[in-house]
Here is the input.
Amino acid sequence: MKMKHNDKTNNHLAKAWFSDWANEYDNTLGKLNRHHQLLDLAVRMSGVQDGYHVLDIGCGTGLLSLKFLSQAECRITAVDNSKKMMDVFREKVRKLSLADKVTLRHMDASLLDFKPGTFHVAASTVTLHHLANNKLAAMRRIFRLLKPGGTFVLGDLDVDTSGRHTDVKRLKRILAYLNEELVLALEDGDLDTFKRMYNNGRKHILNEGEYCISAGQWAQLCRKTGFKTVRWQPLPVMKKMFVLAAKK
Ligand SMILES: C[S@@+](CC[C@H](N)C(=O)[O-])C[C@H]1O[C@@H](n2cnc3c(N)ncnc32)[C@H](O)[C@@H]1O
Here is the structure.
């Protein structure tokens, strides 16, 4: 599961790419029904309630945070390492007068510099797979930041892209994922959405800022970290995406 990559280079690749994508994100991936299904399921499986403090890791343009806020009278702390993605979210916070409910912090997901036991829920959608070598360390931090009984909820791709780039079995695994993703991108989105996803496909294959592991591997990491109960389910519209909920 461990991948040999330089974390600084990885971070740089993902940052440049999200910086370029920020203004188009909501008009591409953000328009896909399957993405909204993922976010809705993540909110449902988090068990969020009024009064909860939620950490959104890799908040991007705020799509997940806004779903939490529409579901409960909660407070959000949202972190991301792309200033451009956060700028889009900050503008929404301003327009929707949500400044008293949302705190934005420019921070890397591998740092998460908060006091232990701060959050009822820590949530992350399609972000943590960008961490190449430090997924377990990040999970340990997330575990510490949760209150006792708190929930970690993860929405991500169910595909293991680790291994040698010359391994044909690995390539077939990734292509099976991309088959679902690219067909839906065109059916459900438009040509621009398709182009973004098509370019992302190459990044998955060559591990250029994309280092996915399977739902089962994430569940293993959660158990190793100390979470008591871990469950996950595939997305109805796209079986190779999942939402996992782990209870501290
Ligand atoms: C695909 S977007 C997901 C945004 C949002 N969670 C959603 O589901 O729409 C991934 C986000 O993770 C952020 N990101 C990637 N690597 C990160 C890291 N190491 N630390 C913090 N944020 C990161 C990117 O800047 C981007 O905003």
About this structure: The CA atoms of residues 140 and 225 lie 6 Å apart. Residues 11, 14, 18, 58-60, 63-64, 80-82, 85, 108-110, 125-127, 130-131 surround S-adenosylmethionine (CB under 6 Å).
